[in-house]
Amino acid sequence: MGENGAGKSTLMKILAGIYTPDQGEVLLKGQKIRLQSPLDALENGIAMIHQELNLMPFMTVAENIWIRREPKNRFGFVDHGEMHRKTAALFKRLNIVMDPETQVRDLSVANRQMVEIAKAVSYESDVLIMDEPTSALTEREVEHLFTIIRDLRAQGIGIVYITHKMNELFEIADEFSVFRDGKYIGTHASIDVTRDDIIRMMVGREITQMFPKEEVPIGDVVLSVKNLTLKGVFHDVSFDVRAGEILGLAGLVGSGRSNVAETIFGVTPATSGSIEINGKPVTIDSPNTAIRHRMAFLTEDRKDTGCLLILDILENMQIAVLQDKFVKNGFVAEGELTKVCEEMSRKLRVKTPNLHERIENLSGGNQQKVLIGRWLLTHPRILILDEPTRGIDVGAKAEIHRFVTELARDGVAVIMISSEMPEVLGMSDRVMVMHEGRVTGILDRAEATQVKVMELAAQ
Amino acid sequence: MSTNSAAQAQAAAQKSARRLPPELNIFLVLIGIALVYEILGWIFVGQSFLMNPQRLTIIILQVSVIGIIAVGVTQVIITGGIDLSSGSVVGMTAMFTASLAQASTWPRALYPALTDMPVIVPVALGIGVGLLAGFINGQLIAKTKIPPFIATLGMMVSARGISKWYTKGQPVSGLTEQFNFIGTGIWPVVIFLVVAVIFHIALRYTRYGKFTYAIGANVQAARVSGINVESHLVKVYAIAGALAGLAGVVTAARAQTAQAGMGVMYELDAIAATVIGGTSLAGGVGRITGTVIGTVILGVMTSGFTFLRVDAFYQEIVKGIIIVAAVVVDVYRQKKRKT
């Protein structure tokens, strides 16, 4: 167990031969082994089921399971009859009801998960690693999975099970280990501990980082979200943000935080619920509308949805403000706009010889500053930041925190999504916590502690 | 310290590199090709390739139709798309425009009641038909999310079909003097250059241009930045269609007749000119000035082959190789940038 980014998946990928370790050793049945590739791991009896499923959608279930090991007939062609029989036998052993000839793309996520498990078992592995196998399953499917896991355990297979869900741990684990910030914290038998013990192990860090949090007068409600729903993703999300307030949005990966942000900004319009800005109901069906309501959205993935990588700093910075400013009869007021961008980049301390540098040549921190500049040029009154300091060096991080504080002081309503607990607690006036697409609590600054937030996030 | 000075040196190198316009490379290629012909000319034919004003005029005249199309294709490719329909649109608009440009003296006019129209009517019709074809391309791509390759491939086939259906395969001749005038003398070149200047300015100095580059660079980021990507793409494809329509008008006027088979493979020449001119098929990069030079390179190549009396078959083989080479250089350049 451990928070996002604690290093669980990375460690398991080393065991599965995907990464090679810089140091240390792995012992398998008392023998030192050094795995070179996933294939190597499989041949040593270690199979891993990944968080993101790795099946070929246009091939059948049987073909997926026996890929690279297809039974051959005497002419060297694939023996489909034999493959079908072997798959059926495997499914019977695992109590899976499924037609081996179905194409994987026609299966539900749960059934794909079952196929992955069957495939891993088919290697006759001694060790089976599962990385959050239940994140997409319904309760009944989880029950089925657990039955299979118990059977496998009875057959003498060792299982490493990564999860965020506390109750699963108590249901199937004999023993658990906790990771935090890339470090091993400890291992205990699961009957010896309580939920609270585990949460304390997961979050028990000292908050040493300083945050430039300022008490600023909090104004009226600017953005009010009521029962916002995106079917199948998140449900009944309601909250207010006031001028000058920083609302932290915490939750584990997959809890729906970024989806809520995308929906408010019109990237994926809501299926139901309402959004009010300054007390007036608004319909936001595209980012364009959101910008016209003076919203800004710094997305989570700089490369995919933020930077225009092959264009220069100037072009990257000006693209949002061009929607309704600095344009006369279609022509861009180049001189004026360049001056404003230069000023902005000075203010944000973007480190670059000049603004004609391509943004892809900048460091992550400087790219992020340019993107922040892009939104500040539009003078937003609502600013949504999704992981604003992910993958950024400490210096740039502190600077970004300072900008956010200044914006709040200027009366901007800020929503800040972050997986970093110290950042959320250090910067926010209130912290909203989400779990599996629902808001599980909104905490005031005074009552928000690491333990409380984690309790609400892991349920 | 050493890394610092290395970084500075690199920054300085980049700075000096930027002072040179990106078109310089392709312009040097153009000069290079011309010089090769010049030398080969003296060796094999015994005359100068370049010192022949008439030949140079013909080169530009011959490429101006491709050039007009390429100006539109460049904009499409900058968005990360492709337009395969322009050649067929040339054929289709040539037929439509010619059918309203017939003179009353011509005995077999398609619409005897609509002869001797003022020249603006057929021209407007031609551009309008092209615009409509491009608009449909854009709508298909924006609304159904099918790849531009497929949408414009469909238009390529259908537009060619329409040009044959329109007169059941018969050519449309007997065009008015005023209409034919568009295709005479230096006029096609003038039209090409005016179009190139207009869209050079549009791409560099207007919001339309900025959004076009942004969409090509990263369509997701463009959308989150508030750009209405769908409606912008419709605009870009409609403009490309209108320019193909204009090229159809010029083609009909130059030939003083229209035939359903006009413009076959023009789309490929236009794409080739665009890519040779430095526009990246990956989107986000490209300039009209480069495309103009690319168009001239294509013209010089063809003219040079004829001048050296190279067999037409070889011409096509070499042309294919040069197009592929241009893209290979583009890919190589991008790779170098990343490391």
TrEMBL record, chain B:
A Pfam family this chain is assigned to: BPD_transp_2
Residue ranges crossing the lipid bilayer per the database entry: 24-44, 56-77, 89-107, 119-137, 149-167, 179-203, 288-307
Subcellular location: Cell membrane
InterPro entries assigned: ABC_transp_permease
Membrane topology: Multi-pass membrane protein
Keywords: Cell inner membrane, Cell membrane, Membrane, Transmembrane, Transmembrane helix, Transport
Keyword Secreted tagged: no
Protein name, UniProt field: ABC transporter integral membrane protein
Species this chain originates from: Shinella yambaruensis
